[in-house]
Design a protein that fits this description.
The protein is an all-beta fold and 146 residues long. The chain folds into 2 domains: 2-75, Jelly Rolls (Sandwich); 80-146, no CATH class. Helices cover 0% and strands 29% of the residues. It is built from no helices and 9 strands. Strand 2 (21-25) and strand 3 (34-38) form a beta hairpin. The radius of gyration is 19 Å and the shape is elongated. The two termini are 27 Å apart.
């Protein structure tokens, strides 16, 4: 994983950040969605963390002159456990950092596998996630084979 921190950010502001921007992809450009696209002037952009070992940063300069930006990145060798395959008869799943909060832009997937003719019973003891109309933070429970 890669952690990004903007230390300074002063670019020209434009509608939809079309003229001048910094764009970060969560992976290779042709294989991922936009992770962050930012323009204008900001003093406190949250720290960003990629979901895997590859990220792409693009700077598009417009026709105006701005101070620019300073972006630092750090690789994270041992991120806190997030996701995995679970086969035990019982267990506990927690978001990374619980109960002190989780980082931005995380995606965790736990695959729980039980024997045929066995069922899984879910019990949520505590849920505290960001409420928004865009549903950035969510818990999804699905059923499937394999």
């Amino acid at each position: 994983m890669i952690e990004f921190k903007f230390e300074d950010f002063k670019l020209h502001n434009s509608p939809s950040c079309s003229a001048e921007y910094v764009q970060i992809f969560n992976g290779a450009i042709d294989q991922s969605e936009i992770f962050e696209k930012t323009c204008g002037s900001h003093s406190n952009i949250p720290t960003l963390r990629s979901l895997g070992p590859v990220a792409t940063v693009i700077f598009q300069a417009g026709q105006t002159t701005s101070s620019g930006f300073k972006l630092t990145y750090t690789t994270i060798d041992n991120p806190e456990s997030c996701g995995g395959d679970l086969t035990d008869n019982s267990g506990t799943i927690m978001s990374p950092g619980f109960p002190n909060g989780y980082d931005h832009n995380m995606e965790c997937l736990w695959k729980i596998m039980v024997k045929e003719n066995e069922n899984i019973i879910w019990r949520f003891e505590e849920i505290s996630i960001e409420v928004s109309t865009h549903c950035f933070d969510y818990i999804a429970v699905g059923y499937g084979l394999g």
